[in-house]
Write a structure and sequence with these properties.
It is a single chain. The chain has 588 residues and is α/β, with parallel strands linked by helices. Among the domains are: 84 residues, Arginyl tRNA synthetase N-terminal domain (Gyrase A, domain 2, 2-Layer Sandwich), CATH 3.30.1360.70; 95 residues, no CATH class; 180 residues, Isoleucyl-tRNA Synthetase, Domain 1, CATH 1.10.730. Helices cover 53% and strands 10% of the residues. The protein has 21 helices and 13 strands. The chain has a 4-stranded antiparallel β-sheet with strand order 1-2-4-3. Strands 6-5-10-11 form a 4-stranded parallel β-sheet, sandwiched between helices. The protein has a 3-stranded antiparallel β-sheet with strand order 7-8-9. Strand 7 and strand 8 form a beta hairpin. The longest helix has 25 residues. 40% of the residues are buried. The model has no long low-confidence stretch (mean pLDDT 95).
Length: 588
């Protein structure tokens, strides 16, 4: 289904052509002066030089040819050559009627479907999710849903950190605490226990303790490095412990990501890439790409056009250790082998941009990925507290994600209970749904690359540009529709009527933008565009609601048409919040 801007431009283009001008001049934008017009075209200004005419003459010529066009209620030329447009109410109603019956509310699928892998997790195992993991999960999940909505085959990968020094630290700390465990007996040849010798709570306490100890005790640090080496060389007892750590951690991670309504198709790990590393390094050496530099093995990735220094991509350090760059390159080999993706997108902290510049260039230069594969980096800013610094707990520590979710859900619960319209149990359940919307909308309404202030009070407000306000609007529509059904039964097979008021027409215009907004959010990987849109749509609906007697409308057909209209508003809003990764309750 064509975007409404394209339809308007098409009609306007006919006018330009009829007057002897290039139809490409008929580019249409939303008006920045809605008090004067709804859409605007500046094509006459651009045409002035080419056709050696005053812009106003060209604009007047075009509008004269289009004054009787059924698409327009009013089309006028104004100084110094703008073309101001107001759409026909009948044209708008017909467009929305097509939306109602179209797949995906009229949003077209992409012409060329792609297989896209999105890497948007990246937590280390044996450590709890904290606020630093929020943005990657929330932004990545939304982009995955948007990509999938327009027809792509999208695979989300959590890409767990499971193969580095943190594993050696945990194993060595366990060895000091429980040396009697069979995993540390080198002579043991039996079957290792199936139950883990620790709980997730114990595991989460062990890592920070071991990390702190390694900074203070050189001997312990060396033992942890040795344990890491043994694990990476697949010593049986250490591998058995590693499996316990993975099972306990992944179960907990799935539970916590589930609280965020974030899902991954793949639960791949750094260790999955390890088998590819030796052959990868040998191939890079044989191809003349990998060279020794100060004892390390590196690939030079700088380019002549660089305006700042881009260091070599290090494959192997001078002490023989591999790095994240090595693992990321090997992971690309695995992804190419398993999925042959058209695009790989990394949703990570923007401070990692240089790392991914090096990895992407190395992958292209050495032929790890096909030349046509698009490697993309979407860097996000930090979530800050009201002091403008990275968000912390009151005592200055890093807040666990589940605590943050609980805090914002509690704030929403308090607001719901102020009205005392529902039971405490229902209020708790609703607060979880609304709290998640507050959290996600508060994040996604900001451009991903920007830092933002996390404000529980503002995000949980039921007024203004917030998630709860959007949900409250959806719940209001559900309530109206339920009351209609109880009183009047089912609606007939009626079509949407042309708007009867300015607020109704404004609502029609907002609805008609849906296709354009989704395409823009997809092309620019920008969920914040959807947030901007649904806030404007919710505002337009609420103005219409306050000015219109929907259920008390005496004309039955007109009343049914109102219900069809607000049902379309609900469908658009619900589709959009699903793309953002949350849902609406039935009551608030």
């Amino acid at each position: 289904m064509n975007k409404i801007l394209d339809l308007i431009a098409g009609e306007l283009g006919k006018g330009f052509e009829q007057c002897g001008y290039d139809a490409q001049l008929a580019k249409v934008t939303l008006s920045n002066r809605p008090d004067l017009c709804e859409y605007q075209c500046n094509g006459a200004m651009a045409a002035a030089k080419t056709y050696h005419k005053a812009p106003m003459v060209i604009a007047a010529d075009v509008t004269e040819h289009l004054k009787d066009n059924a698409c327009f209620e009013e089309i006028t030329a104004v100084n110094p050559g703008f073309i101001n447009i107001k759409l026909s109410k009948e044209f708008l109603a017909d467009y929305l009627e097509q939306m109602r019956h179209a797949d995906r509310l009229g949003c077209d699928e992409v012409e060329k479907k792609e297989t896209i892998i999105i890497d948007y997790g990246g937590p280390n195992v044996a450590k709890p999710l904290h606020v630093g993991h929020l943005r990657s999960a929330v932004i990545g999940e939304s982009i995955k849903r948007i990509f999938r909505f327009v027809g792509n085959d999208v695979i989300g990968d959590v890409h767990l950190g499971d193969w580095g020094l943190q594993m050696g630290l945990i194993i060595e700390e366990l060895k000091e605490r429980k040396p009697e465990l069979v995993y540390f007996d080198e002579s043991f040849t039996g079957e290792y226990p199936k139950e883990a010798p620790f709980t997730i709570s114990e595991l989460e306490e062990i890592y920070p303790c071991a990390s702190k100890k390694s900074k203070e005790n050189e001997e312990f640090a060396k033992k942890a490095h040795d344990a890491t080496f043994k694990l990476q060389n697949r010593e049986p007892g250490y591998m058995a412990l590693w499996n316990h750590i993975m099972n306990v951690s992944v179960e907990d991670l799935k539970k916590n990501y589930g609280r965020l309504n974030v899902n991954f198709e793949l639960w791949k790990k750094e260790s999955d890439a390890q088998p590819y590393i030796p052959d990868m390094i040998n191939a890079m050496k044989a191809g003349g790409f990998a060279k020794e530099s100060e004892g390390a093995l590196v690939v030079d990735v700088k380019e002549e056009t660089d305006t700042k220094e881009v260091p070599p991509c290090i494959l192997v350090k001078s002490d023989g250790a591999t790095l994240y760059s090595t693992t990321d390159l090997a992971t690309l080999i695995e992804r190419e082998k398993l999925f042959a993706p058209d695009r790989v997108l990394y949703v990570v902290d923007k401070r990692q941009e240089m790392h991914f510049t090096q990895v992407f260039r190395c992958a292209k230069k050495t032929g790890i990925v096909r030349p046509e594969v698009s490697l993309q980096f979407l860097g996000f800013g930090t979530m800050n507290g009201k002091d403008g610094k990275p968000f912390k707990t009151r005592d200055g520590g890093t807040m666990r994600l589940e605590v943050l979710i609980r805090e914002i859900s509690d704030a929403v619960y308090d607001k719901i209970m102020e009205n005392r319209s529902v039971s405490e149990d229902e209020a708790r359940q609703t607060a979880q749904i609304v709290g998640l919307a507050a959290l996600k909308y508060g994040d996604l309404s900001n451009q991903a690359s920007k830092d933002y202030i996390f404000d529980v009070d503002r995000f949980s407000s039921f007024e203004g540009n917030t998630g709860p306000y959007i949900l409250y609007t959806i719940v209001r529509i559900k309530s109206i529709m339920a009351r209609y059904s109880e009183t009047f039964g089912e609606t007939g097979d009626v079509k949407l009527a042309p708007a009867c008021s300015e607020s109704e027409k404004a609502l029609h215009i907002e609805l008609s933008k849906f296709n354009e907004v989704i395409q823009s959010a997809y092309t620019d990987m920008a969920p914040h565009r959807i947030c901007q849109y649904i806030y404007g749509l919710a505002d337009a609906f609420n103005r219409f609601y306050h000015e219109t007697k929907i259920l008390s409308e005496e004309d039955e057909t007109h009343r049914q048409q109102y219900i069809k209209l607000i049902e379309l508003v609900k469908d658009v809003l619900c589709t959009c919040i699903d793309l953002l990764g949350f849902e609406a309750p039935d009551r608030m």
